[in-house]
Structures are given as structure tokens and as C-alpha cells.
Amino acid sequence: MNDLFPIFIKLENLQTLIVGGGYVGLEKITAVLQNSPNANITLVSPEIRFEIREIAEANSRINLIERKFSDDDLAGQDLMIVATNDKEENKRIARIARKKHILTNVADTPDICDFYLSSVVRKGNLKVAISTNGMSPTLAKRLKEVLGEALPDNLETAMEQLKAVRDMLKGDFAQKVDELNRITAVLTEKKTETK
Ligand SMILES: C[C@@]1(CC(=O)O)c2cc3[nH]c(cc4nc(cc5[nH]c(cc(n2)[C@H]1CCC(=O)O)[C@@](C)(CC(=O)O)[C@@H]5CCC(=O)O)C(CC(=O)O)=C4CCC(=O)O)c(CCC(=O)O)c3CC(=O)O
Ligand SMILES: NC(=O)C1=CN([C@@H]2O[C@H](COP(=O)(O)OP(=O)(O)OC[C@H]3O[C@@H](n4cnc5c(N)ncnc54)[C@H](O)[C@@H]3O)[C@@H](O)[C@H]2O)C=CC1
Fold it and tell me: Which parts of the sequence belong to the Siroheme synthase central domain (predicted)?
């Protein structure tokens, strides 16, 4: 049973803190920017991988701080990903963040995370996020590949056309819903066998 509530966040409206600039820090900042290129990110870490430096050089919304985490770094932050290689320090940072109501992901300790990152299939405006409830990130990654292949490339055109119809439809809400359901019914109709 997966009790996680999926939401799609506008990170450009929030402040995101990443603690730890190693391999996992790099993976997480990459995942954030692939989805939300306008995210405001502060990354604090005594050692910072050169790939992260390159990303930050090209993006004025990314602020690198080259030292160990200090409790003051939490001021003004909304969301945090903790990815140092010091498990106890990761837990301590998460405890302080909890008191400040900052939503926290701790890369090496799923139990104390407020949220998990997901594997993401993207086709234009369509985005499908996959969660295995922390059971197997590798399966999530593979499913992303399978779904990416299975979803047709012309979905963007279909979405654009449906948006045009949606914008055009007059009448009350119930009529609009009926009409949009009628037009898209073909997507869920079972194929009838032909001889
Ligand atoms: C709970 C969660 C918390 C979180 O990080 O948010 C978490 C936790 C942990 N991951 C670990 C390992 C790996 N993680 C990946 C990859 C991804 N991990 C991601 C998410 C999540 N990972 C969250 C649950 C997601 C879900 O519900 O499915 C993805 C989907 C999203 C992203 O990170 O952007 C991204 C794939 C993106 C893509 O490509 O589509 C790979 C594979 C690879 O890199 O190829 C491996 C190695 C193989 C393996 O272990 O499977 C370890 C053990 C560390 C150790 O042993 O030291 C822990 C800690 C633990 O489980 O204790
Ligand atoms: N959730 C996930 O997807 C995965 C999680 N992990 C876990 O993530 C953790 C980090 O792994 P890596 O990035 O490979 O390690 P790493 O050794 O490459 O990087 C750790 C980074 O943390 C920094 N750091 C150490 N103490 C710090 C402090 N007090 N404040 C700020 N930064 C500090 C270091 O300078 C370094 O840049 C490990 O515990 C690992 O088990 C590993 C693989 C996948």
C-alpha cells in the first residue's frame, strides 16, 4: 500500500536547499532542474563536485555555499534535500527542519523523509511521476523507460487540440465536463474484435 500523496510543485515560487555536493547531491540537483529549470536553489557543502559548479555557473538562480551545513542555512527555505555522507548529521538536519516545517528529503534514510523524488516520464506538457514507495528506485527508472516508449509522441497535439476545445466550450461546468468526456471516450473504449 502506497500512502504518498502526489503533487506537482511550482518550484520557481519556493526556495530549495540541497545539503551535500557529492554524487547524490548532483543527481538530485539534476533531477530538480530537469523538471523545474527556474527553481531557486541553494546548495551547501564543503566539497562540491565540478559538475555542480558547472551547472551553477550557467544559472544565476543557483547559489553555492562552500562549507559545512549551519543551522542558519534553513532560514527562508521551503523544501530541502539532504545528501551528505554523514548519516547522523543528515538525521540531525532533518530534525531541525521538521521543527521549522520545511519539507525534507533525506537521501539515505527513507523513514524520515517528508517526500520522495519520483521517476518522471515527460512528453511535452504531459508528465507522469512514478513512485514505488521506496521499494525499488531501479524498477521506477525502468518503468519510466517502458512508459516513455509506450506513450505516443503525438500526445502533445492531442493535448493542444483538447485545450482549444476546452477554451471554446461555453455553457455550465457540467455541460463542459460531459462534452470533454464524450470527445475523449474513444481513448477508453475497448477494441471490438473484427474478423
Ligand atoms: C526513497 C527514495 C528517496 C529519495 O531519494 O527521494 C530513494 C532512496 C534510495 N535510493 C537508493 C539507491 C538508488 N536510487 C536510484 C535512483 C533513483 N532514486 C530515486 C528516488 C528514490 N530513492 C526515492 C524512492 C523512489 C521510489 O519510490 O521509487 C529516483 C526515482 C528519483 C531521483 O532520485 O531523482 C531515481 C531514479 C530516477 C530515474 O532515472 O528515473 C538508483 C538507480 C540508479 O541510480 O540508476 C539507486 C541504486 C540502485 C537501487 O538501490 O535501486 C538508496 C540506497 C543507497 C545506498 O545503498 O547507499 C536509497 C536509500 C534507501 O533505500 O535506504
Ligand atoms: N536516495 C538516493 O537516490 C541515493 C542515496 N544514497 C546515499 O546518499 C548519501 C550521499 O552519497 P554520495 O553523494 O555518493 O556521497 P559523496 O561522498 O559523493 O558526497 C557527500 C557530500 O556531502 C558533503 N558533506 C559532508 N558533510 C557535510 C555537512 N556537514 N554539510 C554539508 N555537506 C556535507 C561532502 O562534502 C560531499 O560533497 C550516502 O549516504 C548514500 O548512501 C546513495 C545513492 C542513491
Answer: 124-145
